[in-house]
Amino acid sequence: MSVAPTAVVIPNxxxxxxxxxxxxxxxxxxxxxxxxEWNRVGGVLDNNHIIxxxxxxxVNVTTADEGVYVCIAENKKGVEQATAVIIVKGKxxxxxx
Length: 97
Fold this sequence. Notes:
Layout: E1 3-10, E2 13-17, E3 22-31, E4 35-40, E5 49-52, E6 55-58, E7 67-75, E8 78-89
Parallel strand pairs: 2-8
Antiparallel strand pairs: 1-3, 3-6, 4-7, 5-6, 7-8
């Protein structure tokens, strides 16, 4: 029996410091098992974005990585999208005079 896909990104919002790493997990259901694709709203997935199955890893995060990420789950019964937001806190540097 075929079932349309569902998708949820965990966590759906997170704040991370510049220079750190993070991961987004796209939990999907459906039959047949949905194919998962990752995209970024208004941007591209650069070399520091690593897709491993349903997981999107972002290493050495910079403020340029801040934004909305989309997980797309697709099978023969349909397409489902889920989004997550990454907020990047820049490093605070103190100048001693």
